[in-house]
Every structure is written in structure tokens, then in C-alpha cells.
Amino acid sequence: MKITVMTSDEKIITLDVERDESVENVKALLEVETRVGLQQQQLHYNGRELSNSDKLSAVGVNDGDLIMMLSLPASSSRSNDMGFNPDGSAVNPGAFQQLIRSDSNMMAQLFQTDPELAQVVLGNDLNKLQDLLRQRRRQRAEMQHKQEEELALMYADPFDIESQKKIEAAIRQKGIDENWEAALEYNPEAFARVVMLYVDMEVNGIPLKAFVDSGAQSTIISKSCAERCGLLRLLDQRYSGVAHGVGQSEILGRIHVAPIKIGNIFYPCSFLVLDASNIEFLFGLDMLRKHQCMIDLKENVLRVGGGEVSVPFLQEKDIPSTFLDEGRFPKHASSSGATATSGSQVKSNNPPTVGQSSGAAQGDSTEGAGFEAKVAKLVELGFGREQVIRALKLFNGNEEQAAGFLFGG
Fold first, then answer.
1. In this structure, which of 4, 31, 58, 292 has its CB flanked by the most CB atoms within 10 Å?
2. Does residue 346 lie within any of the structural domains?
3. Which residues are marked as active site?
């Protein structure tokens, strides 16, 4: 609907607003049109002053109605309260905070230009607000000093070698600063922490927060987690070894099959058991492939079985804080072990005999009699020889994973 606003200097302004628009938003529109600050505006309708929280429909404003706007002078005491100390802190931090909070346009602009300060303004810690204002003052002083240095370089001797080096460094740093500012404006999420993908699962009836990692070759469970799930009795120690990635972890063995529940459906799952404290349960590429999983980041869900089950990825607040320890993640992801992460290798303590599938050294081989035995065994299942060889090479000689891939294809 359209409303007409008459200002104290008899200026007529027509605004196109929603029927349920708040008075505060109307003032914000008028601030753009009249350059009169939101706090200095006073709106009246039918002789009644409207408060910022009022809705137009609630106070009876209809299409074509007239609203009066009075411009109030800013009080001197308030101006003093809004001042800053020499160190950059606010003279009256509480009043400063309330002023920013009450101005929706200013808050919106602050969220774009300085989201950290915007969050502190919305908080309740005035000491933190003062500290951040002092920090911003120092940053402005440093920027001014840098600009003065750049100005001095402009008038420096262009033939002086040291001056040339400083000019080159200043040009390079300017490019970096411009790139950083562009990132803040167009790609601010790049500066935020990326929360890893976790979903709720049950392993042998025990609920877990499972880390979904398509970059890990194998599904991993820690010894303590396997014990808690009652699966340690099924540990096949013939598949023990050492996982080498960025870090190093001991592979205690393999649990060949156990039920996992995703959503309301049970799926068979096999996994390596690692003696590692930095990981509990990692759902790797082998099981993601086997159960035709899709990581849907648009809908923020994990789809299993080609879409028969969809479970949401957990929000940061639902993930245990120990899992969010940023210092643990690099090791977590890179030492997830034998066939667990890209580029990892296994040193086998007890290599399995020909025909056994393993992430161990002999199991990873794609040459020799052992490899040919695996090819022959899978060909007997009805697959073409070339198809079998490609699948075995894709999974570094792992017969079980190759078979799952062939059956799934």
C-alpha cells in the first residue's frame, strides 16, 4: 500500500510499504529520503505518536493515509555520550551500544563491513566492546601510518635500490590488502570455520556421531568405540598393521561385518579398527560406495541407498566439542589409516594368504600370483576380466571392495 508522509518543513513524501510494516522500518525509509536520523524522527498518526515497535495495520494506517513526521534535534548530552576516548573506546559504551542496536540500517551495514563488531554490539559484554573499539582504533592508526609511508615512498629517490625494494613491497602488499578486502565483501564465509560433516548413526545398536569422509578410502572405528559397541570380540587381528598418512596409527585388525542403522534402515558395514584417540567412527568411501550414498550439500543431508533414506548433517551445536577441536582434525583426517585416507600406506605384521582381502601390504598389491588369484575369483562370479582388473586397481587390490563395487555397478 502507499502512504503519504508530511515532514515538519512541509515536504511531501510517498512511500510504498507493506500493510504490516513496522514503524521502525518506515523511519528507516524516511531516513534515506530526508537525511534525518531514525532517532531524531517522531511519527504521528491521527494525533497519536507511533512507537518503533508498532505495526501500521495495528494502529489503523490504511492505503493513502497521511502520517506526520517531526524532526527532533539531537541532545547535547547524548552527543557527548556518543563520543570516543583518545584510545578509541566509547565514552558511554552502554549508550553507544543502544544507539547502534536501535538503528537497523546501521546494524545491517555493520554486519557487512565488520561482522565481529556487530556480534559484540549484540552481546552483553561491554568490556569486550570497549576492547574491540580500542583494537579498531589501533588498526586505523596503523593503516594511517602505512599510508604515510606509501606517500613518503612516492617522493623517495626512484634510483635508490632500497627505495625500489620498499616500493615493490608496498605495491605487493597493496594487492594483498585489496584481495583481502574483496574477500571480506564478496566471500566472507571463507573466513569462517568449516564444520565437518557428521550424521547420527547406530552401530550395533549404540548411537554415535559418525564423521562422513568421502576422502577416506575405508570406514574406521576406534578400539574404544568398538569395545563400547560390543564388537571387539569380532576383531580379526590378521589384518593388523600400521597406517601411514600425515600421522601414523596402529591398525589392530578388521571387523568384517556389523549392522549400522541410518535413519530407520539397517545396513551391513565392515571397518578397520584403529588404536587412535583422535577418531571415534569414520564413515569412509568404501561404505559410501557400497550403499550408494550421496552427499547433498544443497539440502544438507546424506542420502543412503540411492535416496531411500535421508539423514540431516548435524549442526555445530549438536556435535560434541571434542570433535570440533581444530587441532585434532588434520591428524584425524590424514591418519585415518590403511586404505582410510588418500595416499596412506600399510605395513602388514601378518600378511593374509592368497585370496584373502585386506588393506595390508600384500592385499594392496596389483601384481603377482596373489593379484591373479583375485582376478580369477571375481571372474568366476560372472564379471569380465578387464572389468575385474580395473576394479581391483581402483581399490589397490582390495578384493572385497572391488567385489562390492562390481556388484553395485
1. 31
2. no
3. 213
